Amino acid sequence: MAVSMQESRPYRKMATSCRTRPVTEKRIVWPRLDPVLPTAGKYRVTVLRRDLVEAAARPWRLGYPELHGSPHEFLLDPDLYPGWVALWDRWEEDAAASVYCMSVLEEVATGEVLGASVLAKFERNLQVEFSLVATLPDFRLKNLTAELRRFVIKIAAGTGAEYFATFCETWHDITQRWCLQGGWKIAGVFPGNFVRWNGDDQEYRGCTVHFHQFVRNARELVTRPEEWHLAPEVKKVWEVLDEATRASRLDKMSQNSPVSRPGTGPPASVSLPSRPRGLCRAPADRRKARACSGPARLPK
Fold first, then answer.
1. Does domain 39-222+275-292 have CATH number 3.60.10.10?
2. What is the pTM of this model?
3. Distance CA 257, CA 245 (A)
């Protein structure tokens, strides 16, 4: 049934500081990318296939067991994948219908899945969430997942989404830094946002750090602070978050400057190494190398 809005009025007329557009039907369809074979064909990066479903659940159970008892617990159970996660074998149907898209790093010789990454879509909001990433514990710090990160970013970029969101665990501060370095804006810290398993039969409410980013000129549709109506306390929070993001970007620009300050980096004649794009790079602290949720950099 078509909904009539003729008698409806917005609570407050907004968008005086940004442009608007006509309301249209919105769709997000997962693009089908061909598998990638890095490292001379020893590994394969691909969207999830039916024959990999059982193997794909293992990195989640071993690499991100905190999901047990949470809204993402289905990732631990391969029987729940069909219908929720898009499968290569039924892409024509799943690309539009499935909420989640999982990409995996597969060892070609054995069919073992070493790592996996999940995207989620919020279709009517033209939003893609970089939800979760997991790696088998024995394969952390092996520099194996760079191609997986690039693969996932290409999928997100090909969906037509205009708003990207991600979150990091508060026990994974390295991922938070990567998001900041990649141009993501801090949305806030959500205390107790997710139930998290703590071993045995115990759980707690884990806290998460949230980030967002606009793509495809979506920023032009965003209302500006001058037309917001914020409580004084909320305004203070916004100003602090905005300042923190600005400071992080200035720090990044300073670090990437071709002219180094004395004693702070290589001489100007030495090229600074480019950092790989992607979701997660191996942290120096093995304890923090368990899982992450957000990309380091995304296309503008």
1. no
2. 0.83
3. 18
